[in-house]
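The instructor's notes for this session suggest beginning with a concrete chain rather than abstract definitions. Hand out the sequence below and ask the class to guess, before any prediction is shown, which regions might be ordered.
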Amino acid sequence: MNDADPGLFGPRSVTWQMHGDPMMWIAGIRALYLQALHPRAVRGVTQNSDFRRDAWGRLLRTASFVGTITYGTTAAAEQAGARVRKIHRTLKATDPATGETYGIDEPALLLWVHCAEVDSYLQVQRRSGFPLTDAQADRYVDEHRAGARLVGLDPAQVPATAAALAAYFERVRPELALGPEAADVDDFLRNPPVHPLLRPARALVWRRVAALAYQSLPPYAHALYGRPAPPPATVDRRLRATGAVLRAIPDRLRWQLPPGHILKAMARLGPGSRPAAYRLRREAAILDGPGRAQR
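After discussion, reveal the predicted structure:
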């Protein structure tokens, strides 16, 4: 029996299986689109970093943080959270309309960022065909209260079910708006600066990926950005088609990309810790009883 540290979530969690899926990258871009619609939250990013110059670095650091808290040891996850909290404690933002200065570690702002991420991961994965029952979706939301604690939130104040997450968005919608910072994030995501040699790839790959992430936003986000989206059924078909293509890439090839969190976790915990969607299907079939297997 392998008694190595499984980390915050462990191989039996929904998070462990889902975060190994390649559609997480599209979900991450959707999260950026959604997060930018909270004026107070997005100012914390644009006023404390050169977003356009370091956007790629920021995206990779966010991905590394998610990978660390998902697949790293408990100590590594706690250290990653401590670093984030330390940085956030030192940063302020200013409302240009009122002159108010506020800390970007306000619980309401941290909660918005957290919920936008969890909702984006959940929505993109489910709509792209990743197998999750309603109960597993609730488990996923609940599991991520552990991640919320790492960035400084009280888990008791964080949504624990998909229904509670939806109710949170209903409450916060009056605070959302397309401010100049959100417009800047939107412009960057649609047309990010790249080396001239990479411009063909930007046109062929990135713009399609970013467009699909945008299309998967909820209706109120489309209304704020002022651009229509295809019907939800059309977006779902595109998400499933993209998911099928990306999931056809061998896992080992995808997981070789730095920083290699999943391969490190498998080396620590053994081959049985390999993230796989079929584990969730099998779990759902067992819980549903033998009747499901016969249908």
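Then share the key points. The chain has one domain: 14-294. Strands lie at 92-94, 101-103.
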